[in-house]
Structures are given as C-alpha cells and as structure tokens.
Amino acid sequence: MASTTTDASAAGAIVLGGDLEVCRLGFGAMRLTGEGIWGPPADREVAKAVLRRAVELGINFIDTADSYGPEVSEELIAEALHPYPEGLVIATKGGLTRPGPGRWERDGSPEHLREACEGSLRRLRLERIDVYQLHAVDRRVPLEESVGTLAELREEGKIARVGLSNVDEAELERAREIVPVVSVQNRYSVAERQSEPVLDRCERERLAFIPWGPLRAVAGSRDGAIGRVADAHGATELQVALAWLLARSQAMLPIPGTSSVEHLEENVAAAGLRLSEEEFGELTALAA
Length: 288
Known about the structure:
By secondary structure, this protein is of the alpha/beta class. It is 37% helix and 17% strand. It is built from ten helices and eleven strands. The protein has helices spanning 44-56, 72-81, 110-124, 143-155, 169-176, 196-205, 225-233, 237-248, 261-269, 277-284; strands spanning 13-16, 20-23, 27-28, 61-63, 89-94, 96-97, 105-106, 129-134, 159-165, 181-187, 208-212. The strands form three sheets. It has a seven-stranded parallel sheet, covered by helices on one side. A two-stranded antiparallel sheet has the order 1-2. α4 (143-155) links the parallel β8 and β9 (159-165). α1 crosses α2, α3 (110-124) packs across α4 (143-155) and α7 packs across α8. The longest helix has 15 residues, at 110-124. The chain starts with 12 loop residues before the first strand and ends with a helix. 47% of the residues are buried.
C-alpha cells in the first residue's frame, strides 16, 4: 500500500477564482453523517477525529452541503475545527432538501437558496463562505434565477466565490454569463466519465473540476487493469483511482470522503502515487 506518511500537498495545488490556492486533494464530508446521509454519525467523536486528521495531513479544502444530514456535516465541521486554521477553505452547497434517509429533492428557488446560505453561515460559524455551490439545477426554476441569487449573495459579501454542481456544459456557460464561476462538481471517476466535456471546458477556462463519487465502481476490481497497476505500486485500487484522477487534468480537485481515519490516510497517500505513461494510458482506455 502507498505510504500513509504522504501529505496532501504532494498532489500539487490549484487556484480558485485567481486568488485562492488549495491543495489538489480535498476531503468530502458527506459520509460523516448517519446511514442514508441522514442524522448524526454512530460516533460523533470519531467523525470529528477524521476532520482533524484531514487537516493534519495537509488537506485545506473541505467540501460539504447543508443537505448532508441534513445540517449534521456542517455542524461537525464547526465543532471539530472552529476556529479554523489559517488557509482552510470550507466549501458548501445549497439547493437540495431532504424529506428522509437516502432521499433528495431539488429546490433552486431564490427564497430557499437565500435561507440555505444563511443557515450554512450560522452552522459553520462564518461571516462569509469561501466557495458556495448550487447543488443541482431545479428544472422548475429558471437557472438564471437560482444563479442570480448566488450572485446577489456574493455582492452582499455572504459568499466569496460561486461554484456549480451537477451541471452540463450549456448550463455552465449560462451561469457564467451571470456571475464568475470558480468550480464545477460533477460525478466523475476512472470508470464513469459522462462529464468529460465539462471537465475539458473547466481545464480550458481554468476552473476547478471537483469529481464526486471519485471511487465508485472501483472497489473489488483487483483482477482488471486497476488491480494490475495497484499490484505494481503496492497500492490499493482506490489509491490508483485517485492517482489517475490527479494525473488526468490539472483542473482536477478530488474530494474522497470517508468516516474512517485509516481510510482517510490511505486516500491522502494516493497524492504521492505517480503513474507511468503506460499505466495512465491503460487506465484511461477502460472507458473507451
């Protein structure tokens, strides 16, 4: 297995919005909540220990959302890390509501987004959110209204930078006509690449691309190409999947999440794993 002494800084850095530099390997705080991303974790102290260890390992970009729990993930981050160390960026999202465990509904109305942002500010104990993302496009609400609300919140100083999540290339361009966008968070992994056009656009426009579900469809693949590469490096399949993402594009900002300190350390160790050109090509061909 790749060394667990590697610091997240080994992944390199990326700049958000031209002025905010973070390590190119972050942490997704969704899985710190209860089953179905609902309610508190089984052990609140363990969840907070994961967050503290992430910072110790050099991670300075933590991604969350008001819908994780709901509210639980943001509360845990504040309990574990506030007052926040200098340079730590907390990115959160609004636009999804939670009627129950494992259930997600979209609400991109200006009223809801404004209320969601205010709630995140309170729970995170912040005066301004560094990166605030529209969690998903609500087909019942014109995108211009949803993004326009984020633009207003930015003008009011409640958020510093705007990001998007679960959008296609056309929606990204429509949003950018209203407000500067610094990041896009879409589902993407070595095995699932439907968002490749969006990633390519982010790379050209110098926006961060934050892949969610970066380790999906990878675990248990030891008999395939990922397993062969993992064996060659003494690594896990998940570490190889993260290394491929980091090699795929300088725009990439993976945020693998976990509720385990041990698994967190394994993920961060992937920052130091370097694939050969042949290995990168073999893995890239998996989705060809």
